[in-house]
Amino acid sequence: MTSLLIKCWFGLANLPYLFYRMLSSTIAIVLTLLLMAVARERRQVTLTNLRLCFPEAGPFQRWGWCAAHMYFYLRTFLDRGWLWQGNANTVRRRVRLVNPEALRVLAGGQNTIFLAPHFLGLDAAWSRLCLEVDMVTMYSNQKNPVLNDLILKGRSQLGQPLLLSRQQGIRPLIAAMKQGRPLYYLPDMDFGERDSVFVDFFGNKAATVTAVARLAKMMKAQVIPVLTRYRQGRYEVTIGEPLANFPLDDETASTQAMNHHIERWVRDNITQYLWLHKRFKTRPPGESRIY
Fold first, then answer.
1. Cis (ω within 30 of 0) for the bond into 117?
2. Mean pLDDT on 107-131
3. Where are the transmembrane segments (predicted)?
4. Which residue, 22, 63, 174, 263, is the most exposed by fewest CB within 10 angstroms?
């Protein structure tokens, strides 16, 4: 069944662009209405996250954000059908680097971490940047082996990227960075207490990995944000300026500073941040469960 769904998914992506966009948007709208009605757990996770992070917003606004978020989640998920087929011309047309000149910062040879928070278009940014530079990233294995293979193959289609599983540890990642590969790193998921600290995220304690701070200090790496926005059928990827005065001397302070940067970027694009994720699942000692 999974293989059949994948064939339909990729077949949809091969339709002429205008027809594909119209049909995929319609599918995303229908599925959004269905999920808002029946996917109670995911809906409640999203609404809970929005309530915790934006207590000043009213319930109707949060419900609107929730519905928009689910639409963008589904819309960008469908777009992976063309992102993962390895057509460089299609990716260049549909994923625009807003400021490609910013990549000149790589010419100096300094180790680089591309900081990519979980905006829904992060796969589009990865595929587009792979056309410009050979990167390294880490991934988490999926429970479904067919889906896991699909993701790995799809994310390896363009350029010559190196994808490492978290089970491989940090040594091969460090070796790749020493060879000149920028690290494309997703810093803002709850992986539990291991290698994490509890720092604020929109005023709520969130288990946050310290890897960015540790690697930046160890490798003397510049940390450059990569922000992606879906807009009218296409994606816009903005490469930010290297974070100033980062990392700090203290890992916890550095990780807190990183979260404050992410908060600012999220406020500019609330509905396209990954609110479906249980960001506050791991709690500090003594605190009750949220979800």
1. no
2. 96
3. 19-39
4. 22
